[in-house]
Amino acid sequence: MTTPGPALKASPARPTGCPLTLLLFVLLSCGMSVCLAQDTLFKQVRVITMTDAGELTRADLRVRGGRIDAIDSDLPATGNARVIDGEGLTLMPGLADMHVHYGSEGEGALYLANSITTVRNLWGSARILALGTRAAAGVAAGPNIYTCGPLMDGPNPVWGNRSLMIDSPEQAIGAIEAQRTTGYRAVKLYEGLTPEIYRAAVQAARKRGLQVWTHTPRSMTVDEVLALGVDSLEHFNDVSQAIYPLAEGQEMPGKAARWAGADPALMRAFAERSAASGVWHSPTYTVIADRYRHAADPQAWFARPEIDLLDPGLERWWRQSLDRMTPLNAEMRSAARNQRRLIGLLHEAGAPLLIGTDSPNPFVIPGYAIHDELAAFVAAGISRRHVLEIATREAARFLEEEGE
Q1: Are residues 52 and 130 both part of a single domain?
Q2: CATH number, domain at 71?
Q3: Which distant-in-sequence residues (6+ apart) come within 8 Å of 161 by Cβ?
Q4: Which of 30, 43, 148, 209 is most exposed, with minimal Cβ within 10 Å?
Q5: 166 inside domain
Q6: What's the pLDDT tens digit per position in 306-349?
């Protein structure tokens, strides 16, 4: 899928020491392809470049033909270019939410309103491809969509007949070839695949130039997945088995207990192995830890003004999900702290990371949830500058779209 030139959104300048969650963006116009269709000159704006140039305090930035044409101290307007007074505003690249499940066209505006100009969709379909085409053409308000194909699972799929049920390596190869010809840019491999089928699928995707976005199959270890050099591991699945100090003769406890009892030395060793493998991690901290905090006070949550922007069916699903939400307890709080700690250790070790939210799971609002994820990365000990790099420049590097 091709994309327009670099996307930039403007916001009020942020006071020193302001929490990252208060870095609110003002969308100057509509979707990116429409916004940049007309030549635009931003005058005297603060520019955060996400490059070695760093921050420019008062600069003119000109966009021509959908691409940044020049940045200087005083640029002239050309032709019928739109001129935007950038005094007191900040201009930066659009954010990327690198783990979403795009639901409907109406969600597109929620992403744009939070300066998200790119999303990575983790469960593809022909409908998602069509939504991406409409957004890229400026027909619908929405971000650029990079999507995998339909989820590929084993003969007893977690999500029933919503997934592709793969019984053999040959079926996996055929499904991946079909996804390539359809126009997907990646395959998503899930938890019920056997080691034989999983390895065949990874090899088939590699031969066809498709990325592999994955969970760890139940029949494999996370280190076996890392050794195959997949592109991304989603939700820290299933990292907890590699960082829990299992005593001889002890049965492996549940996932929350494993995270709560994670060993710091094992966590650091895993981070170093991840860095050596080159596999990207999309922790989706918001959905695996943070949403339970919101569920503890649902009435306050549903009183938030952005709830009025949701599709009513989505809100109903969230309210119905309350009965299935585990109450926040001490073990879950310890698990969340260790998940956040591992994010910091991965960054320290040089392992590549992605900012993703897994919206629209319950209490994960499309677009808005990225601020929770950004804040979690800061709380993990990563500087705000590096967090914004992960959400912009690093996302482009993962998608092999650095020039776009």
Answers
A1: no
A2: 2.30.40.10
A3: none
A4: 209
A5: no
A6: 999 988 888 899 888 888 877 778 898 999 999 999 999 999 99
